[in-house]
Amino acid sequence: EAGVTQFPSHSVIEKGQTVTLRCDPISGHDNLYWYRRVMGKEIKFLLHFVKESKQDESGMPNNRFLAERTGGTYSTLKVQPAELEDSGVYFCASSLSSYEQYFGPGTRLTVT
Amino acid sequence: AQSVTQPDIHITVSEGASLELRCNYSYGATPYLFWYVQSPGQGLQLLLKYFSGDTLVQGIKGFEAEFKRSQSSFNLRKPSVHWSDAAEYFCAVTPWGSARQLTFGSGTQLTVLP
Q1: B2-40 residue pLDDT tens
Q2: Residue of B nearest to A42 (CA)
Q3: Got the DSSP string for A43-109?
Q4: What residues of B are in contact with residue A45 (Cβ under 8 Å)?
Q5: Which residues of A fall within a CB distance of 8 Å from B92?
Q6: Residue A99 pLDDT > 80
Q7: Is it the case that residue B42 has pLDDT exceeding 90?
């Protein structure tokens, strides 16, 4: 069984540009989560999908971040326009109805 | 608001030595508790979890953790560390009875000396 995959693994963009991160959860997992780790800080929750619906987006930092989950399968996280403080590692995780979340390898975003 | 504290930012141990990584949480009720490990270039891997029952839980790779309600702690232990255990370790909690977000500690970086 394939695990959670994320694309790209690394992205370097300039301030003001747009970046889209993609997450493919484990097949059949209704719950999908996005987290972010800014350098030297904790891993912080961004949002939670149940199928295609946003269950909780309380962690989204501002309206420059837009997450979607088409058809309840893969998810994208778009940052537009990117700012320097958006640099960090973005993790995606998925789970069934249980409480065990499976994480992807993360996307390292660098905004210069 | 719930919080997780990992007081040790960096720990260095010799291969073969025992290991204990500390984790304390602050929450109104007993949450679900987890330990994750991130090796270089890898994603977060679940080592073990505690939901209820026996307070000593066994995980993968020879790790165990003990839940102590009176101390609000969930410390991770391993009797004999291997060089491959060098990684960053995260303690995390989520509210009891939910499939909601994880709240993480700041992580403990483990270095293993030969």
Answers
A1: 899 999 999 999 999 999 999 999 987 778 999 999 998
A2: B106
A3: EEEEEEEETTEEEE-TT--STTEEEEEGGGS-EEEEESS--GGG-EEEEEEEE-SSS--EE---EEE
A4: 101-103
A5: 43
A6: no
A7: no
